[in-house]
């Protein structure tokens, strides 16, 4: 048990050193994953969710659908509670993950924000 803690502690230290060398501002999604202590399983679940939403988005777009708010709601509802939906979308967009879907989500958020301000 003590060895496992030491190994984990060493890994954490190494990650801290690497994060000082790498400009994590260039990788905001990875930074969110690290800062919010997302596990490998949680990360894989998120990527699976995004992949599914992206496939649905492209299918619906081909079918002529123009409102994708339900996909955004599904994303926010199924997103790990450690992550903020808006921050996660912005980070994914900046790193180039699922660009069409993230642009759509950003447009919906912007449109909804303007409507609320009126």
From TrEMBL:
Signal peptide coordinates: none
Family matches, as Gene3D superfamilies: YhaI-like
Protein name per the record: DUF1878 domain-containing protein
Pfam families: DUF1878
Keyword annotations: Coiled coil
Keyword Ribonucleoprotein belongs to the record: no
The keyword Transmembrane helix is assigned to this record: no
Coiled coil: 36-63
């Amino acid at each position: 048990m003590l060895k496992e803690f030491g190994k984990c502690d060493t890994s954490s230290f190494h990650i801290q050193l690497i994060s000082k060398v790498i400009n994590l501002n260039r990788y905001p999604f990875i930074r969110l994953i690290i800062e919010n202590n997302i596990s490998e399983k949680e990360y894989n679940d998120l990527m699976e969710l995004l992949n599914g939403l992206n496939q649905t988005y492209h299918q619906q777009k081909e079918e002529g659908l123009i409102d994708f708010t339900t996909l955004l709601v599904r994303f926010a509802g199924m997103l790990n509670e450690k992550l903020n939906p808006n921050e996660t979308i912005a980070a994914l967009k900046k790193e180039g993950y699922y660009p069409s879907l993230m642009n759509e989500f950003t447009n919906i958020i912007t449109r909804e924000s303007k409507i609320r301000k009126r």
